[in-house]
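Handover notes (outgoing to incoming on-call)

Open items:
1. Iron-containing alcohol dehydrogenase: sequence verified, structure written out, both below. Nothing else pending on this one.
2. Nothing else urgent.
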Amino acid sequence: MNNFQYYNPVRIVFGEGQIEQLSDLVPNDAKVLITYGGGSAERTGTLDEVRKALATNGNREVFEFGGIEPNPEFNTLLKAADMVNEHNIDFLLAVGGGSVIDGSKFVALVSSLTEDDNADRTVSREKAWDALLSGCANIDTAIDLGAVLTIPATGSEMNNGGVVNHSERQAKLPFRSPLVFPKFSILDPTKTLTLPERQVMNGVADAFVHVMEQYLTYPVNAKVQDAFAESLLKILIEEGAAVKADPENLETRKNIMWTATMALNGLIGTGVPQDWTTHMVGHELTSLHSIDHARTLTILLPSVLRELKESKKDKLLQYARNVWAIDSNSDTKQDDDSIIETAIVKTENFFRSLGLPVSLADEKLDESAIDPIIKQLEAHNMVKLGEHGNNDLEVSRRILERSLTSAA
Ligand code: NZQ
Ligand code: ZN
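Iron-containing alcohol dehydrogenase structure tokens:
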């Protein structure tokens, strides 16, 4: 196991009816900006619950900013940041999924980047763009934020990262800062019952791939992280099928929600190598073709595993054995290659069973899509991906070529 530090200060408040805890969690005298997405929070009544809780206990001034898109848009977020400065907001409350929480983290970070000489403190578009390009690494102040999660998927509710999309520049870029760990996140699983099936399945797949990108590299004898990761994968396989068969089952929803949070709160990624190739190539597919985040991952992951199966061989065999119970000692003894291929095919079939695409063809894309993706990877300096930093543009190209149609 490699050396590591682990720090995660996010208070998790889990369970039905817990939104009312906002009256204690948000400072009594705060100037709060509630941020939300395209309308689901209003429609489902979650926003009303939030408003009611904030009006209890104390003397908060509450403002609202709606319209944060899935794959949150840079320009929209800067409007929210301007509102933060206009009203001297000192607490952001994100109500929604990964897009709203990520977007609010970005707002929290960039609202201090005002034009040097303007009295009304609008945020400098250039400074904010430069900050995003450098992953927000050099920003040293941020507004406090909390979250009410309505879709289990990204782990944003318990981590310090985010992803922002800039459509005009055709860029979807990640950022990270210890300043944007939420002060708290409320996880009420009943809120997920209103999700369309597509979003539920997207969430299961996103969490699955988060675990895989921290697990499927090479062994460093990290037994806690490996066993934890394998358990999370098995739960997602089981509960993915369960939620499809019985979407109203709250116990299933609870398990999916907590698993997705645990998948990307830093714990299983401590002290182990990581490979975020699938996500980084996937971001380019979203920004060029508007494919849902999770669906880019299910298209790419099988090809990443096939392309890199030599360097990932030990972990692939462990994955086959411990997650898919493929027994190398059974009577029908298979060689290593066929064990690995069986595990990858089972992974693909799992994605398919959730109604997710496993090839570019499934999203009506052909080989003409590849060159522009490679160009964008180069423009965003995604040229040394993977646990060894060996995945250059040629490797990414081969991964994309393998993804044109499903191999299974
Ligand atoms: O916008 P509204 O109307 O709210 O509708 C949303 C949106 O259309 C809807 N929705 C959310 N909760 C609902 C609901 N509909 C009905 N009932 C509810 N309870 O769901 C749609 C998708 O929402 P979104 O927030 O985009 O989904 P998700 O949580 O999957 O977030 C995806 C974003 O997170 C980023 C992705 O790149 C993408 O931009 N990621 C963030 C990560 C992080 N911060 O660590 C890691 C991930 O890898 C991921 O990259
Ligand atoms: Zn993801």
